[in-house]
Amino acid sequence: MGQWDRFLAPYKQAVDELKIKFKGMRGQFETENTNSPIEFVTGRVKPLASIYDKTLEKGIAFEPSEKLAHELQDIAGLRMMCQFVSDIETVVGLLRQRNDLRIVEEKDYISQEKQSGYRSYHVIVEYPVQTINGEQLILAEIQIRTLAMNFWASIEHSLNYKYKGIFPEEIKLRLQRAAEAAFQLDEEMSKIRDEIQEAQAYFSEYKESQNTHFPTDREGEQTNR
Ligand code: 0O2
Ligand code: 0O2
């Protein structure tokens, strides 16, 4: 096993474990028939090429080290997507009350969006991973954002690759305007939140009732006789 594989292994474990735990939170809301503030969860270990780019940016050596682990807080990255802006606060509250991780920093790019137009709430956590060599504390970055913020960020991220971070002025302006439009969409949706959630609860009840009316295999056999 290479030294990078060995270095990144606990990060992979942290991402896998946290992804299961956060998806579990969504499941718990569903079991209780309560609208979940979490729509979906994704996670990734930062690819080596991106780690390399970040080390160049930060002027640190590209080698597995304590310094790298300390300076790059998003080698383990989780993303939690929400339907409504107010869900983000609920999710952050849920994170604050967990005792399997420790929050080391919070960055609010929602009330203070980035110059690019980027909006998201970032929580940096320290998460203990159990390994065969004992416990290892891993830093992970959890990005919490609405579906609209996520849509904007993924589009902008792809364009960033194309233009290598140097956008033509017109594209930059359009992206800033698109970010505002996405935020307007979030605001409008928030205003009819109760209406939307009532409809969603009605729809999931309807789906459940449809499921319970499907004949089981055994019933199917009987009716075919
Ligand atoms: P389902 O049944 O599709 O909802 P892995 O491939 O093992 O690393 P995972 O979770 O499969 O892990 O992949 P990833 O990329 O971390 O997470 C993707 C999950 O996010 C998938 O769900 C996607 O369906 C879900 N997803 C992506 N975009 C959206 C979206 O716009 N809305 C919703 N509701 N879900 C989205 P799952 O967990 O595979 O299950
Ligand atoms: P990737 O490919 O997502 O991993 P840092 O640069 O991390 O040491 P900083 O600047 O305080 O320190 O980090 P920040 O801005 O809190 O978080 C960085 C991450 O947030 C980025 O990771 C992106 O995922 C996301 N992000 C921040 N600004 C933007 C933006 O303008 N557009 C988009 N699409 N995403 C953004 P990486 O490593 O840059 O990229």
Automatic annotation (TrEMBL):
A biological-process GO annotation: guanosine tetraphosphate biosynthetic process
First-tier enzyme category under EC: transferase
GO molecular function: ATP binding; GTP diphosphokinase activity; kinase activity
Pathway as given in its UniProt record: Purine metabolism; ppGpp biosynthesis; ppGpp from GTP: step 1/2
Domain named RelA/SpoT: residues: 43-167
CDD domains registered for this protein in UniProt: NT_Rel-Spo_like
InterPro entries: GTP_Pyrophosphokinase, NT_sf, RelA_SpoT
Annotated region (Disordered), positions in chain: 205-225
Pfam family, one: RelA_SpoT
Keyword field: ATP-binding, Kinase, Nucleotide-binding, Transferase
EC annotation from Swiss-Prot or TrEMBL: 2.7.6.5
Family indicated by similarity: Belongs to the RelA/SpoT family.
Subunit details: Homotetramer.
UniProt-recorded name of the protein: GTP diphosphokinase
Source taxonomy: Bacteria, Bacillati, Bacillota, Bacilli, Bacillales
